[in-house]
Specification:
Alpha-Beta Plaits, three-stranded mixed sheet, globular, 2 domains, alpha+beta
């Protein structure tokens, strides 16, 4: 962190109500060694997105949709589905959410519908985890996923899901039987039609009531492959011993470093 005094940096983009954050840090060691900076803590002010205004919600939707499209393209097959709750499961989850909030000192009559909805979704989160574990156990496939919760007009939560197959395959019956709180519908995504990918991803991140749940580094595989490709090309340009090409299954034969005279 360079510079002296206070620094203001903007990361809010087109947000209409940016939030201000303060961070503290020390200058880099080189600047201190050259006596350009003193080894004292520096403060920077950051303008970040509020994540609630219309522009932030649109940015959030576009970001996750782009990541989902990359995962659809790079995966073997992708299932698009919806998980819903039966009336009995919803009432049990709702009562559990009310008990959860009451034990933490919240008065139910003062809580809004959004607070109760978030608490209900939080109580169902362990069942979502169990659903994923059952799929992996019964199929033996390596999967990646994104799950977005949305409120129905009646206030009952349901989930839009994309399940990407990386290694192995998953059947529709396995996906359906793993969900035990209600009903589910799944179909394969037609990757040959670009409109299908857009149709699927437009459902993602429409709601800001809950967080998006996804695999680690979801949507960043394309960036990782690009970085590996750049690293490989740099090794070729340097004319030194070439590292195995990560983009080829068999790798690349080793080349001896060019002799110099």
């Amino acid at each position: 962190m360079g510079g002296s005094g206070s620094t203001r940096v903007g990361f809010a983009g087109d947000c209409t109500a940016p939030c201000e954050l303060f961070v503290r840090g020390l200058p880099d060691e080189i600047s201190v060694a050259l006596r350009r900076e003193k080894a004292t803590a520096l403060v920077a002010s950051l303008d970040v997105r509020c994540r609630r205004c219309e522009n932030c919600l649109r940015h959030r939707q576009q970001l996750w949709a782009a990541r989902a499209r990359d995962e659809v393209v790079l995966s073997g097959r992708t299932w698009f589905g919806t998980l819903t709750l039966s009336p009995e499961s919803y009432m049990r989850s709702k009562f559990a959410a009310e008990l959860y909030m009451a034990r933490r000192g919240h008065k139910l009559e003062e809580c809004g519908e959004s607070d109760l909805f978030k608490a209900t979704v939080q109580c169902i989160a362990p069942e979502i985890t169990l659903w994923l574990k059952r799929i992996r156990k019964n199929s033996g496939a390596a999967l990646r996923y994104i799950i977005v919760c949305e409120a129905h007009k009646t206030g009952v939560p349901h989930w839009h899901v994309l399940v990407h197959e990386n290694e192995g395959k998953v059947g529709k019956r396995v996906l359906d039987h793993a969900w035990r709180l209600g009903y589910s519908q799944f179909r394969l995504v037609d990757t040959s039609d670009e409109r299908t990918s857009f149709y699927v991803t437009k459902y993602l991140s429409k709601s800001a009531l809950t967080r998006v749940r996804a695999s680690a580094d979801y949507g960043r595989a394309k960036l990782r492959l690009t970085a590996e490709r750049i690293e490989y090309l740099l090794s070729v340009m340097s004319d030194k011993q070439i590292i195995p090409n990560p983009l080829c299954k068999g790798g690349t034969p080793e080349r001896k470093e060019k002799e110099t005279f």
